[in-house]
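Predict the structure of SDR family oxidoreductase.
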Amino acid sequence: MFILKVLVVGANGQIGTHLVKLIQESGTLQAKAMVRKAEQQEKFKQLGADTLLVDLEGKIDNIAKAAEDVDAIVFTAGSGPKTGPDKTIAIDLDGAVKTIEAAKKAGVNRFIMISSYDTTREAIQEAAGSSFAPYVIAKHYADIWLRDSKLDYTIIHPGKLTNDAGTGQVEAAPSVARDEVPREDIAEVILESLKDENMIGKEFQVIKGKTSIKEALNRLS
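Done. Here is the predicted structure for SDR family oxidoreductase.
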């Protein structure tokens, strides 16, 4: 049986951690967890996942080397709300672009990006002057870079992320009303997107809802 091997960039984040666990439990996928610190590796080793240390602020070649033996890459990394604009640009924009370029260098065509709920030019204008603006700008241009990369991409725009337990039900569409969504459900959306080739080229917003994740994604494809 063919096992899809997936490099999870930003595996130590909350979505990334949920995703690695789901992948390892899937029976048809295998996770490779990319983290920045050695102490972050142990929890993934306990799940049976491959782990490796790569700093997103380092060289493209280092990321490409990590991606050499995988079939897909998921970018879940983020600088976090407590960092300044410099880290936002370094991780959410430059880190994403370097990972896209590393995918091309390693010959990995499948790429899933976890973006922000709204990364349109209008969203940048709405955020102008606030501390949130650099994040929206970074995601806006990272999304453009991925769309133009010619990779087999999927871009997921989650609503406000929560740590509530996942329900396995969402609402997903190119545009949905702003609402919350559990990180655990976003991880499952990623998992199902990896399994379904019809999700290639899709870009959509996702919030909590009343439709099973698989059915919600089927409606997109």
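The chain has a mean pLDDT of 95.
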